[in-house]
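Appendix B. Extra example for self-study. Work through it before the problem class; the solution is given directly after the inputs so you can check yourself.
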Amino acid sequence: MKQAENGFTLFEVLVSMFITGVALLGLAQLEVYILKSSQSSFNYTVATIRANSFVDAVWADLCNAQSASTGTYTIIRNNWRNEISAAGMTVDDNNPPAAYAASAAVTISWSDPRFSEAASTENNKLTLTARFPDCE
Amino acid sequence: MQSKQLNLKNNKIGQGGFTLIELMVAMVISLTLIFACTVLYSSLKSSISTAQELAKAQESLRGAYYLLSRSVRHAGSVAVGTSGALITTYGASPASGDKIYSCLGNDDRVSGSTDTYWSEDNDLYCDDEIDKQKIALGVTGFTFTTISHANSTGDIIYDGVEVTMEIDGMPSSYAGGLTFTLALRQKVLLELAD
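Solution. Structure tokens for the complete assembly:
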């Protein structure tokens, strides 16, 4: 009877519980990571479409946008900048440039709150380079 | 062997089970584990379904944007069809050896061919005069306004189209849908070449 007790020691139980806990925490991390990446991927798609939207807005009125006297380019740029700001993304002051250029970069940045290490700053950025044909 | 036989004979030695305390402790530990697993599983499941919704919305958005932009950029003009359909008409046949693809991938586009896009039962359809097919799922809103100007003789010339798409599973910050501009680039280039 005295030697019949043959279970786990407290230490063994603690070690196994620790291992289980680490595994569960790993799963929880995985979950956070899945959400982060799918959200981030979606934002990149949307930012790409928005940057392309500016390029196409210039194309749609190309000849007027190219002559500085009409002010068309400034209107297109301001409208687009307001749209992006209203949507919660940040526009770059120099990309697209303030004045029409045949080769222009379009930069949009945004913050992803799920990436907690840099929650307050813009930690995602997209730059698109476009060329426009010359209009005589 | 010997002691076992002894045990069978002598019933006074009790059966070797768990004590109540041991049982309770074991149950508490296993219940805690089961509870932790359940909580984790359900939250994992919900976040996976959120991720899947986002992925589906993204797939529809990218697919629809790709096909729409290809049609509009190659087109010579755009028009509003019945019940809010977007009709893009090709203005010029491709140069010999080149091909222009329709929204459904047919490579027979010539001057005057059309691609028609419309939303029906939360899906986006395209008709390229040969076939009619679903091209994006979960499109709950598809509206557009054309961009145009009048030329010197007073004719309306279309320059582009501004499309707003609402898709199932988009994050709540996109409640009004996503709006983007597409230009009739091919038409602009042809005008420049003249």
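Self-check: The interface with chain B takes residues 1, 4, 7, 13, 17, 20, 24, 27-28, 30-32, 34-35, 37-39, 41-42, 45-46, 49-50, 52-54, 56-62, 83, 87-88, 133-136 of chain A (CB under 8 Å). If your reasoning did not lead you there, revisit section 3.
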